[in-house]
Design a protein that fits this description.
Chain A: Pfam families: DHODB_Fe-S_bind, NAD_binding_1. With 284 residues, chain A is an alpha/beta fold. Chain A is 20% helix and 32% strand. Chain A starts with 17 loop residues before the first strand and ends in a 6-residue tail after the last helix. With 338 residues, chain B is an alpha+beta fold. Helix content of chain B is 28%, strand content 24%. In chain B, strands 1, 2, 3, 4, 7, 8, 9, 10 and 11 form a nine-stranded mixed sheet that branches. Chain B starts with a strand and ends in a 5-residue tail after the last helix. The chains are: A alpha/beta (284), B alpha+beta (338).
Amino acid sequence: MTDKDHKCTCDEQPLVPTIVEVIDIIDRTPDIKSFFVRNADGSGLPFQVAPGQCSMVSLLPVGESMISCTWQEGQEYQEYAIKRVGLMTDELHRIEVGQKIGLRGPYGNGFPVDECKGKDMVFIAGGIGLAPLRSFIKYCFKNREDFGKITILYGSRSQADLCFKEELFDLWPKEPNTEVFVTIDNAEPEWDGHVGFVPAYLEELNPSSNNAVAVVCGPPIMIKFVLQSLEKMGYSDDQVITTLEMRMKCGIGKCGRCNIGNEFICLDGPVYYLRQLRDLPAEW
Amino acid sequence: MKVLSKQRLETALNKLSEAAEVFVPMQKGGQSGFFSWQSFKNEQDELMLDNLNVYQSPKGVVLPQTEKMYGIKTQGVEINIDQVYEDDHPTLIFGARACDVKGILAMDEVFLTRGYEDNFYKARRSNNVIIAHACYTPGDNCFCYAMEVNPVDPAGADVIIRDSGDVYVWETQSEKGEAVTAQISDLLEDKDVKLPELGSFKIDVDYTGVAEKLKTMFDHPLWDKISEPCSNCGICTYVCPSCYCFDIQVKMWGDEGYRFRAWDSCMYEEYSREAGGGNPRGAAKERFRQRFLHKLEFFQERYGTPLCTGCGRCMVVCPNDINIVRIIDAVKEAEVND
């Protein structure tokens, strides 16, 4: 791996953020908000993020967190869908439109969108795990003719916890040659959709592995069982892609903590084919 | 050959200090390490050029224990980054042993290659000169020879000095070294002296094949046994000349403050704990395994050299008698199922 080279698209101070402005905030679920940002002077974006890449989002005086960019709309804005899980995200959920925050990136390899062209796409997500996949899903719809059938399977704990509802229920099902399946963990009075966990529903739906690629993101336990289901359904390790998360500080493969084996998830990942993960120590 | 008389050493250090902050191994208060020559007080401090390893290696000269990164001002919703603290003041490390120089070379790989150059490290390192001190008499805990380090001809030095009785033989190794040599040329003399021979190492260890074998040993029961005494105190990472992991934190007083980085340690539970509560290395054994695999396998795979330089400090300071040489031996002896 000594010949591994990375292309840096940042300026000469990769650890120093650029100040951007939060131009809109949307409540996605009770504990997930979308933050829309662009340059503080209104002139576009500090850097370009490809589907699956991440940025270090910095809120003072609290801290910095690595967040997968859920969508970049041209030069207009980047959207980060962020769940309230800790100190920094808790504070972030209290800010209002107009707040300046720091942003640095883009980090990581992103999804192998070109390698997936011509394939049927099966997106499988749980909870906030839909946020990174959404960048790829929206990319597919923007370049619809490049991809075959698109199947989206998404689950969360409850109806209220379903993220990106408008897209799940109104927009994406209307796309050509596309099926969207949504499930929640437990039955609720106002819910007439599917009830149950994602892996079991996936096996029930059984999307064909023929010329297909499955892209998976969600809580570790969901990923674990989904990978088992995909194997049972005939998906090879070359047909399964996932995106990992680890605690990160620098984002550029220096600070040490996000390694799995000799890989740094911030730099070499976060997106991996299952075949690549099989070569790494079982810490993912 | 060029030599520097030991009687002229202090004059030389004074002269070198005119152009750079010179860090010299010394005993200062309760700790020994590489401290600024300007801070040396004859009646209190003691030069330790003759000692093999002082307590703290010179890694802090290029990667300080805490380092300001940039200053911040906030006003309402506004944020300004008003200053980036790149410290490029000239520094010179005088008398680093080969193992410690190797530690800095390993950090060069981390901070200056693989796509991103760390501008803070680069600023310090590009104006840093290393005068290495060749070792001829290995100490009780030395095993650098097994970790790709040549104690007599340290790689990466700008000048090498060799102790020969009343003088140090002075060998210039690089362009940076030539500039330093020119600076004290009037103190150097031409003289042929006899160089000592390298004595024998007291520690017998062989790292050959260990990285490759470890690749098959992630789940080996050996880790349970050898990690058991470890209390995850982190002192091994603190004194290690090549442990470079850092944390980034922020310090604010009202509307003003700065971000800084500080040495961190993979021994601590918080190091890899995620905001959502998950931790891939939540158990003490997992952190222990991470440290030794990083030293002996992962770094070798990624950068082509081990991250242990054989200085022996961690074995001396460990309160629980954990010994990396015995770990290498245990790995070599372990039975693995193919």
